[in-house]
Protein 1
Amino acid sequence: MTLYIGREAPKLWRKICMETYVELQLFMEKWKLLLAGLIFQYIHGLAARGVHYLHRPGPTLQDAGYMILPELGKERGYVSESLFTFIFLSFILWTFHPFVYHSKRFYTVLLWRRILSFLVASQALRIITFYSTQLPGPNYHCREGGELARLPPPESVTEVLLINFPQGVIYGCGDLIFSSHMIFTLVFVLTYHKYGTKRFIKLLAWVLAIVQSLLIVASRKHYTVDVVVAWYTVNLVVFFVDKKLPEMPDRSNGSQPLLPYVKDKDEKSREDHHKLLNGNSVDTADWRQRLQVNGKHGEDGNHIHSESAANGA
């Protein structure tokens, strides 16, 4: 086992280094777009923090989902967050698998450029929506009497810009239509559905998205309308934005190899020797090149080729 790990470790390290080099080249070309997408994540958080100052608690609205799904309760509110964290981290790890695995379908930099485009378009619509109409928050800390239901006016611009991270993001109120958790979940699921390879995981991803929707409503973090609007809005956004973006090259067909596989000398010699023993021809130019590197003449290559072929017969 130790011998196997010692033999495979250099190959894995070489693969990671080569993939990193290529991804860095792409990153140098696309970094402005990636940075813009990351900056908009902050703008989205800032907008959500701003609408919290406008939030006014009130009676929880009548909701069909609340009538159907039992309330999980404040002490079990972590269940939906735990599932979302699992989906979030699993997807991020999957996007970086080309650095490790030899089989791959996409470039990580180009994939995240696409993901951020989907997120920005969806979040921009979300900001417009929750600033248009502020609903009384159904979450426990947003109800009348809750400590965070009403925020006092900010004392400085710095207080607003810092958005009280991370508490200000986790315990927000007023940014309801539509669910930010469902934006991320659906963008991730739709992306894996297109670029993933495991059919079972695709099915599991959609099941988890449905379970996430139900848990959000059962946890009273959003109204049912927030989740329903997210389902059709995000799907439509991804559909139209995806059509506008240039299609990513498919690496699985081998037409555009990113990581050229370099064989070790011993491995290549064994393959050539195996071909000779089976009576198959070996590229003479390759033999000549290798023999000349070793300080021998091309004619020696012909002699060795004949002798090996005769022994194989």
Note: Confidence is low (pLDDT under 50) at residues 255-264, 281-313.
Protein 2
Amino acid sequence: MAGASSQVFFEGTEKLLEVWFSSDSESPDLRDVKQEEWEKLLRIVRCEIISKTSNADMDAYVLSESSMFVTKSRFILKTCGRTTLLLAVEPLIQLVKEQCGFSKVLDVFYSRKKFAKPEQQHSIHQSFDEEVSHLDKLFKNGAAYTLGRINKDCWHLYTMDAVGVMEPDQTVELLMWEMCPDTMQIFTKKVCKDGPEATKKSGICDIIPGAQIDDFLFDPCGYSMNGLLPGGYYITIHVTPEPHCSYVSFESNVPQENYMELMEKVLNTFKPSKFLMTVFANKESIAKDNHKQLENKELVPGYTRADHQFCTFKNYNLTYSHFTRPII
């Protein structure tokens, strides 16, 4: 994002960090951290805050490179491009200890799709091995996984090898690339004047109706949006529209027993040639059995399922599916 031009490659694939904190003290709250402190942390990551929206459960920030979400005890940071997300993990832990009184990392999740051009990343992000090595220095009981084909498209995950989050928790992601050129034109200044126009014209506003939307259209192209819903639920979408590196990500923690209708809405909105879908839900979530619906390889009309993996670790179920549109 951040106004990427059509002449330069931009790595749309995001690095996604989710950290849950706990404390023995009375009711600490991550939202007590002042915005200027978040801004200092984000300078380490090499991005900045564009806008903020809030409801009773969550603060959501649109960034120059993707998004950040803050609840009482959970921190989510998602950054694209050449950002240095993992350099901020240790400062984050120190910040929330000093500012809020959080004394313990309850759980951590770091994930990303394989980069298109890893050599353009900071050295800490040029390989998953380097990322794991860095995280292992911070967490004694880390566990690293790769799903998919390591010589082609795959998805990496790092988490803690112990049960941490006991409240219902779920995340669904659709990571899409080789996008429909006509659809991607909507996310340029040539077609839309601002974020709200792009949100309406693309149909994003209809994916999960009722969300409190904060959207931004970059110049000359690129788009980011956060949507807040009651109960600490969110959606976030990021678009890199350039034809030579087109990419779109959709993420939400809205709990559903079956994500098929939501997936169809997202695919009909963006029309990717390829996408991977991950559904991550713990045993307390109503989404825990979504893998049963995803077992059908004819699940998505117009696409061929290239890979499908299901795994269980600690108290979570994780499903990974990779789909491609057949070449005619």
Note: Residues 192 and 198 are 6 Å apart (CA to CA).
Protein 3
Amino acid sequence: MSSDSSLPIAMGFVGLGAMGKPMATNLAKALPAGAHLYVHDIVAAAVNELHALFPTIVVKCGSAREVAQNAEVVLTMLPEGAHVKSVYLNPSTGIIAALDQTSTKLLIDSSTIDTATNLHIRSQLATHSPGTSFYDAPVSGGVLGAERATVAFFVGASPSDPTLPRLTSLLQPMGSKTIPCGGASLGLAAKLSNNYLSGLITIATSEAMDMGMRAGIRADVLASVFKAGTAQNTICDVFNPVPGVCAAAPSSHGYVGGFRVQLMRKDIGLAVAMARHVGARNVLGAAGLGVYAAASEAEDCRDRDSRVVYRYLGGKEDW
């Protein structure tokens, strides 16, 4: 990936987990000569590893506040709403502690959290620092997409937002598509709707693969049938839950890496809550949430990629 001279010379990234670290890596690769990427994570090893890859670009910081003090644009990628709230609003170590009435920073949160927390953070930042812009921009594409810089960003902005071209330019090194979803927190609403559907498709794919294989069809043949028919979906084609069908999928590596099953449980729960809040009727939500909750507690599934629900459902792995 070549450098992009349109990117700022001082950017920040907070949250170097399974998604954040490869995203920050791709961003560092794209920064122009002389630029710096200020980073922070509570896991020092993640920060050290990124710094070792880009010793002249990555600057290690002791807090989110320090990142925001040095960077004009800050991106965050964190597991849950409580983490996001702390990173942005902690009066001592949070981003807000680096802002004042004259600040004009651009803050982009790519975490998948509830819309209420996002709107609360937005309100607090607007009061404390009116010139600072804050956008929700969650992503879809999984760890493979983060590594390959092919994730899609769902941005909480209207197509006519004057900042959208800048946002698109900033996010381009990390993803293949930026979709404006209409306004504040609507990127999150889109992401929760997406993960609700993706999570349920994973369960349905696991069940369909299992029953077809039990009937005597080879897993790879069955996957090719789904790909050619009306059942075609990305989970089956790229992240197939049956080990050995997709060589790069987490399932083919002991379900290590990928999107942890506990995080899918969280996202399905947030989606079901959002549906309830807006008055949508979800007949599959409770059942899907139950599957992910149970798999999250199962010893042979916990902390593994969410497609491990195939294992939880009793699917054959050594076909």
Note: The beta strands are 10-14, 36-40, 58-60, 73-76, 106-109, 133-136, 139-140, 151-155, 175-180.
